[in-house]
Each structure stands twice: as C-alpha cells, then as structure tokens.
Write a structure and sequence with these properties.
The structure is a homodimer of 320-residue chains. By secondary structure, chain A is of the alpha+beta class. Chain A is built from nine helices and 14 strands. In chain A, strand 3 and strand 4 form a beta hairpin. The longest helix of chain A is centred in the N-terminal third of the chain and has 17 residues.
C-alpha cells in the first residue's frame, strides 16, 4: 500500500504538502493554518462491539485532525449505499455519526449520498472529511520527534482489531472486547494544555503501533526504544493474540495515540492525560535514543532486544 | 433521495449550515468564509468519451465550490478499490485527476486508499472533498434569486448523460457525444468579474436543469419562466433524446451552470462568459417572474406553457 501510494498518487498529485505524509494536510489559508483530511471507511461488519461504521468514520477524521494539533471544527460525510439497505440500518449509522460529532464538538456541514445497484457495493461505505485550525504556537509533525523525547501511549493496544475480528468471525472473545473507537480531541487538548511542547503525534490505526512508530522514525530520522513491559494490553486482548498468533504491536486501534514530548514535560503531560476518560491508562512506553538510521527497538519483558519492523501486509482486511 | 436526505441526515446531523442545502457549506473560520464540500463518484463505466472517474471527481468538487462563489484551493481524494483492479487503470485515473486539478489551479493535499475484496465494490469509487474561500463582497446562494433576475445557462444540456449512456450501452451516438465534464472556475470567475452582482448559481448535475431551477425556486421562494427556444441542446443530444424518450431538461451535466443575475448586468456578464471556452454557447434562457408559489414554467417553442417539475427518480443510475 505504501509503495502504491508513493508511486501512483505522489506521481499524479505531487506537491509539498502531500509529501509530508501527515495524518492531515496543513495549509496556509487567509492567515490561519488550516488542517484538512479525508478517509474512507469500509469496515465489515457495519456494527461491532463498541461502535459502528458511522461512529468510526467520525472518530477517524476527528483524530486525523487532532494528530497535527488542530482543533477539529467541521466535517463532511459521504455515503455509498447498496440498493435495498434497510432504512433502519442507515438511520442508526447516521444517528451514531451525529452523536459522535456532537461528542467531539464538530459540526457535520456537508454530505452526499450515492445509491448503487445490488452487488456494486457491500452494504455501505462511508467517507468523511474534516477541517480544523492549528492554534498558533503548535508545531506538531511526524518529522519533529527529537532525541531525548519521551514516547507516551494514551492507552491499551489492540481493542479495535480484536473487537472487529470477534464480531466478524463470531469468536468467543466477542463479549469481552469492545472497540476503543473514540474521538481524541479531549485527550489531545489535555496533552497540549499549558503550552506543552508536543513534537509528534500519531494514532496507531492500520498497521498498529509498530507502523506508527516506524513512520515517525523514518520521517524524523531517529532511532527509538520502547519497553514491552510498559505497553498496556488488556488481558482479553493478550489472550486473543496468543490464540490467534497476533502481535498487539501490529493491531489497529481507533481511539489511541502516541505522543513525543520533551522529557522535562512528559510527567506533567502524562498526569493531565490520565485525567481524561479514554486515556486513563496512558503510559510512557519509551524514548527517542538518537538521530540517524531510523529504527524502532523493543526491549522485551525479559530484557531482550528486537527490531520492530513495519507491518508487511495487513493482519485483517476491512478493519476500518 | 431528497426525502431520504431530509429525514435521515438532517435528523441526525441537524444544523443551520446543512439546512441551507447549498452545493458547498460556507462557514466562518478565522475571519474568512470557508467553502467546504464532499461528493462520492460511482460512475459506470470508469472511462467514457470526454473523461473518466478521476476527472469527473475533481470537476464535481471544484464546481460545487464555485457554485457558492468560492475560489477553489485544496482538494482531498479518497479511493475505494476492488482487489485486482489493474495498476494501469488506477494510474490513468489518478493522472487524470491530477491533470484536472492543475487545470483548475487547485492542489490535491490529502487522500486515502482502501482496497476491498473482489465483489465488495464495482472496480473503483472515488470520493473528493474540497475547500476554498469566498471573496468578500460575494453573496451567492440558492436562496438569493430575486424577481427580475435574468437566468443565464452556460452552455448546451445533456452531453454528460448521453455520453455515459452511450459508453455503457454501446449506443451509436457514442462517437459523437462527449461528456461536458470540466472545471467551471474560469467561467465563474469571468461571470463574477467587475463586481457583477450574481445572486444564485447551481450546476445542473443529477436531475438536470429542471431540478436545479426547481431547487432555486423553492429556496428563493420565486416563480420563474424559461424559454425552450433559448436553451442550447446539441443536435446529437436532441436526436438521442428523441430516440430514447428523454427530456434534455432532466439530463445530467458536469460542466455547466445556471446563474441568476440582475437584469441590468446580464448582457455584460453573458459577453464575458462567452469568451471562456467551456461557456461559448452561454445564453439567457429566462427570468424570475415574481415572488411566491415557487415553480418553473417552460414557454415551449410553439408558444405553449408547461410546468417543469423536479425529476421523479433518476433517468439513469451511476451517472456521476
């Protein structure tokens, strides 16, 4: 996917903003810095423990805006629906999107609907786009991680992917694991309070924490170390991973982020973060070791060291 | 569709901006008026005379921004692709989107790609979103048409829908009719030059001119008259309509607009508009007769009068 994007899309659309490869584009507009992002959601099934495609689509776009430090303001939502989809299903998805938008204090101000014939789309796909403003003084980028930065993870890994898998395949963890799908605006605001110099943010969605960290390592040209024992994973998720042969570092999340913060501000930032519901389990999981030869090293629970590579292929398709 | 949108989406997302039902939302942001829009494209086939889904998706979003008088600036593009779609097809679509963006002087600054399994989507769907700024002094809204306004149509009707139909069904008009698919930014800029007070703009896409005019009549609470003899229709399109039993007033266009302009400025505006390539055939096709009881009357070529209603159902699905 990464190669496809690089070759086809960068080739066709090439410009400096796109090449920055942030979760949202940040562009200058009339004296303010505008954040702008779009994502399509094709999750299957449409409904899962902890959410549905409507909630997921709003959270995903709100969170992509948050990851460049923007205050999310306005969303657009576009539906592609299969002929014959029940009005009740559509109403539930739309209500869920609307409620999540209100929770995140954003307004859905534009939208579109296309209905296609039976078999031309699997039930319903949703595309959301969003705009927000980056406050002055905020300078967050996946290219800005610096040696000495502490790495804060906002909560436990893997809940979303295990919830989707359980719902899709009817696995027995089903009842216990709910998606972490949530808007991160409140948590990011808490992190940024008191002018805390946050250097980089990313939400570990497709490809999980491993991919998010490797992306930041590559773009910032730094090496980092994370400590297995410090990374929160719920027991039900750990158990599911053991049975299925999954690594929690590669599992998708929809309500978590990693933050790179100067060491001297990390403890205070962590304290504020833990006061926010969805980040109660936040932890410092590692640090940036130094410049050059971008890579991520995991210090295992028993003291071993291994390189954490980017995900090769997806563990599970149609997860978001 | 109109009923579905009203009931489900206005219910779930309700806010004043959405209720205005413009082609783009216009919101206040940091002292500037930001225009913001999103649309999904599901056209079949992906390639047709005069364009492809990539060009169409960029034009559609650029044009929606133009219809509120905004200067289009930045686009986002999101692809949903069927597993196994050829890289060559994807590259051609992306190149076409990129070229159209450059033609319209907008930058594609964000995007997303999801690949779904065979059969979960019909080849490729594209969703585009866009932002632009509304210059100060411009006040264009589908609610602003006024008695006495002249109605300018920027060119001939129906080329896009007949081109799609021909390409899909292999009909014999195929070689002669190409989609009018084009970015309207240049034409709208010409219309707005010299501070011309343009009151309303709309591009007659799905549902055609009949639906666009009825929507403006309803939102502006006015009655209008249009003259059949003044409405440009290419002979090949007229012929296709006769054979297939279509009414050109209901055919979709992707590079045309109607403008409502004060009578005293209409001739000058028309002159400037005709100097722009895609609007060379622009014509004054009618006028706003008065306030109250919103409706559209067609004065036929032989002098008869008939009410032009909104389209009931689509003549052709998956046209955009």
């Amino acid at each position: 996917m990464h190669e496809l994007i690089e070759k086809v899309f960068f080739g066709a659309f090439d410009n400096a903003v796109l090449r920055r490869a942030e979760d949202s584009a940040v562009v200058e507009q009339g004296g303010t810095r505008l954040a702008f992002t779009v994502d399509s959601y094709v999750v299957s099934p449409l409904f899962f423990p902890g959410g549905d495609i409507g909630k997921l689509a709003v959270c995903g776009t709100v969170n992509d805006l948050c990851m460049v430090g923007a205050r999310p303001q306005f969303l657009g939502v576009s539906f592609i629906l299969e002929e014959g989809l029940s009005a009740e299903v559509l109403r539930t998805i739309a209500q869920s999107a609307g409620e999540t938008a209100r929770e995140a204090a954003v307004e859905i101000v534009c939208g579109d609907t296309k209905v296609v014939g039976k078999g031309a789309v699997d039930q319903a796909f949703v595309t959301t786009c969003g705009v927000g403003t980056v406050p002055s003084g905020v300078d967050i980028s996946a290219s800005n991680a610096r040696p000495g930065d502490k790495i804060i993870l906002s909560g436990s890994l893997g809940d979303h992917e295990i919830a989707i898998l359980s719902a899709r395949e009817g696995l027995p963890f089903s009842g216990n694991v709910a998606s972490d799908c949530a808007p991160l605006s409140g948590a990011v605001a808490a992190l940024l309070a008191e002018g805390t110099p946050v250097h980089a943010l990313r939400d570990p969605t497709r490809g999980g924490l491993a991919s998010a960290l490797n992306e930041i390592a590559r773009l910032s040209n730094v090496a980092m170390e994370i400590h297995e024992s410090a990374i929160p994973v719920r027991p039900e998720v750990a158990e599911a991973c053991e049975i299925l042969g999954f690594d929690p570092l590669y599992l998708a999340n929809e309500g978590k982020f990693v933050a790179f913060v100067s060491a001297e501000h990390a403890d205070a930032a962590l304290g504020r973060l833990r006061a926010v519901g969805c980040a109660a389990q936040a932890a410092i999981i590692g640090e940036v070791a130094g410049h050059g030869l971008p890579h991520v090293t995991l210090i295992t629970s028993v003291g071993g060291r291994r390189i954490v590579d980017v995900a090769a292929g997806t563990q599970l398709p149609r997860i978001c």
